[in-house]
Specification:
The chain has 3 helices and 9 strands. The strands form 2 sheets. The protein has a 6-stranded antiparallel β-barrel. The protein is globular and about 45 Å long. The model has no long low-confidence stretch (mean pLDDT 89).
């Protein structure tokens, strides 16, 4: 059973990861790292979207993709993962930069980013449509609801 260790708090003062009291000691020495890997639950994805197996992004150059070939939030287990810069720790709260999760998103785990383990080895291969998308959309700020609404989805027949 997976249970959250904290929650995302977005405000005018930045993006914070607020850990629950029982995990405060789990943050010891975390501020010795510049970056953290954040694993979170995409809690706004409706249960019926978890049967999505294919998505068609609204860009003509992108084919219909199997959901495992995407970063789309609707998937069998709507788990998000991102690497953030740790700005500072304040008690059991972490101010971070680069978090792509909505306010209230449950945090499942945090891991220190260690390049020798977390950076891929060898040459990274990306399909043409991803390269085009990265060139055109350097960073998006879509909410989960917006992402769910901009693509066509094919669900498993149950």
């Amino acid at each position: 059973m997976v249970k959250p260790v904290g929650v995302v708090r977005r405000s005018q003062n930045g993006d914070w990861i607020q850990l629950y009291k029982e995990y405060c000691e789990a943050l010891d020495y975390v501020d010795h790292f510049s970056h953290l890997i954040v694993i979170y639950w995409l809690h706004k994805v409706p249960d019926h979207e978890r049967s999505t197996v294919k998505v068609k992004p609204p860009y003509g150059y992108v084919p219909t993709l199997g959901v495992f070939a995407t970063r789309f939030p609707a998937r069998p287990n709507p788990i998000g993962i991102t690497t953030v810069r740790l700005i500072k720790r304040k008690g059991r709260a972490l101010l971070v930069k680069g978090l792509d999760a909505d306010d209230g998103t449950p945090i499942l785990d945090l891991k220190p980013y260690i390049p020798v383990y977390d950076r891929p080895r060898g040459r990274v291969k990306l399909p043409r449509w991803v390269k085009l998308h990265l060139r055109e959309h350097r960073h998006h700020s879509h909410t989960i609801e917006e992402l769910l609404s901009i693509v066509e989805r094919v669900h498993l027949a149950v």
